[in-house]
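Problem 12. The chain below contains 486 residues. Write out its predicted structure in token notation.
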Amino acid sequence: MRTGDVLKLKRDDTHKARVVIKGFTMQPGVHFNQTYAPTVVIATFRILLALAAKNDWDIWQGDAPTAFMQPKIDTEIYVTPTDMMRHFSPQLRELERKHGRGQVAARVLKGLPGIPQGSRLWNQLMHKLLSSLKLVRSQVDFGLYHLPGYSIYLLIWVDDIFLFAAKDNAIKVDEIWKILQDKIGIEDKQPIEDCLGVDVKRDRPNRRIFLSQEKSIRKLQTKLGLGELKGAAATPMDDKVKLSKEDCPTPEEARTMSEEQSSYRSMVASLIYFTMWCRPDIAYAVSKLAKFMHNPGEAHQQALKRTLRYLFSSASLGLLYDFSTAPAKDGVYGYYDSSFADCPDTKRSTGGFILYWWGCAVNWSSKTNRYVTTSTNHSEYVAGAVCARECAFHESLSKELKQHITPIHLFSDSKGGIAQTYNPTNRAATKHIDVADHYIREQVERKRLTVTHVDTGDMDADIFTKALNRILFLRHRSKMLHECPW
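Solution.
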């Protein structure tokens, strides 16, 4: 296997040097087998942050500096030595002097960055270690562990570890962290501040947590250059614009704009990351932009620039989990909506939902349906089924977190869709609906969900299904995102 040395200047101005295997040259079944490794669901992360704010829990973080180099390799791999390996291995230098450079190969005994199975080997090592500490892995989120009998929850995101715990469990937390330091060399625990590109600000006396990605957004803005995108935009997408594959360039035109298309893909990938963590307000725009990453045209480029102008002008917005006063709505509730046949190319509908725990936005989605729906009620019913399946995850997770939330209250602005959920009488209008889309009806019958009508003007999920005008957009956004109040 071929290797290389990677030298990097980290964000804290420290230097990092790594030997990296060029994994793209490795063959499946020879150099590696399975590669899958779970990470914590982002919604779980947000839920625990909300729970920590509500109950005034401690939140600690730390990472293992040499995570991938700790587990034993599961296959036989030989690599060509690098200058860094020679520098730290007198035995290797002696062998090369004896046999000549290019005649000596080093066998990999433990994981190195670049191997496809590295994340899996590390995760298996962590699971074995945490299990020995009596921590139990969640059945619904394999990146979450909890300690029975204690309010202690541990999240794993590759080599980053986050520990949530009630203050009266501090001694047990110290014991666990000390063992992790001894076994895997994890750093000293630190209060959560900057994790995975998200800034976490905490006002513990008032039980408030604020999440934002302003630093990452400003970093992207600097990378693009301020002169390229002047001015602000009130909304992430023009409500009069419909993006279509007809706006994609021909193969000849695409060849002349390969650099612009590469930049488009890179920027949309950054926007997807922002959407996943702290910016539900751009979810609809990003889902539409992502559909044309294979061949973006001028119209798509202009739509992207508008989204970026909006994002840069609102970079300070974030998620506020505020328990300084009693929440306006208790428990878990959500909104779902659909925009019928809004895709000009496929005539498929866009469905979206948002779920709240105690008034804190923790989960959202904006996606085009898998198939064509035949009416507005049908598309709303399908959106409800998608939301209901996500609610099943939240219900199971709540039990593991010792939070009893059943039933979950959902809101829809479609009276026809709600009627179909409670009273399946119109066979002619529903006989073609997939069995999976009747899931929401069953959950309502089992009293795990309730579905209630809400006026369109109060439908928070509207922001995930269509481009809205400024007034409507700001009304819905104000329920999800805020400026940091301190």
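Discussion. The chain has a mean pLDDT of 90. Students who got a different answer should revisit the alignment rule from Section 12.3.
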